[in-house]
Every structure is written in structure tokens, then in C-alpha cells.
Write a structure and sequence with these properties.
two-stranded parallel sheet, 7 strands, elongated, 2 domains, mainly alpha, single chain, 7 helices
Length: about 240
């Protein structure tokens, strides 16, 4: 029996399927994940180019083409979805900022913003009460030391309260001072080691928001919500214990 030798010609079928095309197709299924989508598109183009250049030794062009179609389609859908989500999120944030309750919270949390009338009145009462308490601490310190006064806000807050105050009450007092929309300061103070015959001090409480009159006056809101030039007062106290 006569045998004939196997001869591979240019017309014979491809002998190997492109593994890169298969990998591109698998990755294209997860193209909604940006890194995998990019990898699927890159592998699809590379594998398709290699298949065309192999002169029939590789097949899988349909697989590579399918990977590219799926990858590009998912990438386009993800782009559209992200734009829609971003627009919806932006509109939600704008509506959230326009909400009256949110605006009140933002005004209350920022100590440098001019507050509305209700918030300003609350801050005034709180500052006045804190100044009374500070004057009480100074009086008690002077009575015990029989000399001067506490001349720094840090030392006064470290004292934290009058005799009998618990550690929790002292911490609460310190937090109320630091969180207040008023700024407190001690001036003209006679320290314990001073030789002055008449010890004295001056406590001031000034709103942190803009006051009028001044070089850059700003408007403040009244009880009706209208903006006027009537702003919150500045409080002061001295060794007499009177808050003015």
C-alpha cells in the first residue's frame, strides 16, 4: 500500500486557537470593572493583530472581535451610568444645601459665619453665663491666694470651676468655652506675684463673627430674618464680678 506524506500548505486549516483572544473574551465579561475592561480591550486588539499576521497558523479572530464588542459596549454603558449618577448626586447635594435645617446646622457649626437671630441670641446667653462663671473662678482664686488673679485663659480653664465642681463639670465648662461662638480674653490682669496694691483684671467676650461698626461692616439678621446692622453685643467683666 502506497503512503503519502502529510504536507502543510497555506490552504490548510489553522493549527492553534489564540489563547490571548480567549483571555480577552473572559476579561470582557467583567469590563464594568475599569482595569479589567481596559485589559480586555488591549488584549482584543493585540490578539486580533497577531491572528491576522499569523497567515493561518492562529484562529480566534471571531473571539477577539467579540471581546472588543463586549468590552467597548460595557465601557460605554459604564461611562453613561457614571455621568447619570454624578448628575443625580450633584442635584441631590444642591437640594441638600438648600434645605433650611441643613443651612441652620452649617451656620451654627461655623463660628465665623454671621448667625441667624435665634442662634445669635442663644450664643449671647451662653457667653454671658460663661463670663459669670469665669468671674466666679477669678474671685475664688483671689480669695484663696489673697494676691492676684488668673491672668491667662488656659490657667482659668485649667481651674475649671468654683469650689466643689466635679472633674466632669470642669471638662464640660472647658468644652463650652472652646466651642462657643464668642472669643474670650483676659486683659489688664494682676498676677499672683505682682506688688500692686489693688489687684484687677478685665474679662471680655467678643463674637467671632463680624461686628459693626468697623472697617468692614457686615449685616446681621434680626428676629424677623431681615438683615440689619444690629449685631450681638460684646460682654465684659472685672474684679467687681459684674458682667456688663
Amino acid at each position: 500500500m502506497e503512503r503519502t506524506a502529510d504536507v502543510t500548505t497555506s490552504d490548510s486549516r489553522p493549527v492553534r486557537h489564540s489563547g490571548m483572544a480567549t483571555a480577552a473574551l473572559v476579561l470582557s465579561i467583567f469590563a464594568f470593572i475599569p482595569p479589567l475592561g481596559i485589559a480586555a480591550i488591549v488584549l482584543g486588539h493585540v490578539s486580533r493583530r497577531r491572528i491576522l499576521a499569523s497567515r493561518g497558523r492562529l484562529n480566534g479572530e471571531a473571539t477577539a472581535r467579540a471581546a472588543l464588542i463586549i468590552g467597548y459596549t460595557q465601557a460605554a454603558l459604564m461611562t453613561v451610568a457614571m455621568l447619570v449618577i454624578w448628575q443625580a448626586l450633584n442635584l441631590t447635594i444642591q437640594d441638600f444645601r438648600r434645605d433650611a435645617m441643613v443651612q441652620r446646622v452649617l451656620r451654627t457649626s461655623d463660628v465665623n459665619q454671621v448667625p441667624d437671630y435665634e442662634t445669635a441670641r442663644e450664643e449671647e446667653m451662653t457667653a454671658r453665663a460663661l463670663l459669670f462663671q469665669m468671674a466666679g473662678i477669678e474671685a475664688e482664686h483671689h480669695r484663696k491666694s489673697e494676691q492676684g488673679y488668673l491672668c491667662s485663659l488656659g490657667a482659668l480653664l485649667e481651674a475649671g470651676g468654683v469650689e466643689g465642681s466635679t472633674p466632669a463639670e470642669k471638662r464640660a465648662f472647658k468644652e463650652r468655652v472652646w466651642q462657643s461662638r464668642y472669643g474670650f480674653e483676659i486683659q489688664g490682669c494682676t498676677p499672683d506675684d505682682s506688688k500692686e496694691a489693688t489687684p484687677q483684671y478685665r474679662l471680655t467676650a467678643v463674637p467671632r463673627w463680624a461686628q459693626t461698626p468697623g472697617p468692614n461692616p457686615q449685616w446681621c439678621a434680626d428676629e424677623k430674618g431681615a438683615f440689619t446692622r444690629i449685631c450681638s453685643p460684646i460682654f465684659c467683666a472685672d474684679e467687681s464680678g459684674t458682667v456688663k
